[in-house]
């Protein structure tokens, strides 16, 4: 057990002990990545972000054109940890009951019973989430925030780990229903999935074409094995809670988030009219937790600040460029 000390007073022995623990407990991540890359070519960022979501219980919003292995990636990850995977294709005629479930009448028993929907899984892929109306999108809110679903008068707890990964197609906007701000706020990470490189494209073509001609699934014959369990994933969350994050990094996170609320005070006055709503406290919590999970995946018991190019929208990029890295 590590001794508790005031914030900012962290002894090197503590860091060493945490580092050794993290290196030991995070070894299974490399094994998962090895298995996933038997099937998925490239897409390292997407795979990493999905694992961060599973390790922390955060939800992921993926944005990318069809055919970039989004479904294949999450399905393969679920196989490596023996997790239950459900995919829901969001369409304009989808109803909330199609996602969370409904109450049905059993004629034999004369009672009403709950028929659980596809939300009862470890990883739920809400494919093209913006193609269903707001009432269906909002059906996910309780599950994403409270880890529970209410069907009729009964509330049902969801199994952990639980994560929603939603996808959006950035090209087609006709006939879509943009996610409400309250819904977007439930996602820990917004990941833009790009096209593979030229070499990756060639490898994908060679790897997948034969299987398609033989009528096999994309991952058939690749030998993906279960190398961990959902229990191991939940144990990893406890270890991530011990990852040390320096007070300077905490201040850095808070400064980034508060800069979205008052750009002028951060020296970004030209962005004031462009920002309607700043990030909520969920943003600072998500940055803290995601950074610890990222350190865990890199087998580090501490989080270092790294200057990286931010590839999200221009406003967020400006904030990161303006707020000084400690």
Description:
The structure is a single chain. This protein is α/β, with parallel strands linked by helices and 326 residues long. The chain has two domains: 28-235, 3-Layer(aba) Sandwich (Rossmann fold); 243-326, Magnesium chelatase subunit I, C-Terminal domain (Helicase, Ruva Protein, domain 3, Orthogonal Bundle). 41% of the residues lie in helices and 16% in strands. The protein has helices spanning 12-25, 27-36, 44-56, 70-80, 96-100, 134-137, 141-146, 181-184, 198-213, 230-240, 247-261, 281-297, 314-322, and strands at 59-63, 85-89, 101-106, 111-116, 123-127, 148-151, 154-157, 163-168, 187-192, 244-245, 302-303. The protein has a five-stranded parallel sheet with strand order 2-5-8-1-9. Strands 3-4 form a two-stranded antiparallel ribbon. A hairpin with a 4-residue loop joins strand 3 and strand 4 (111-116).
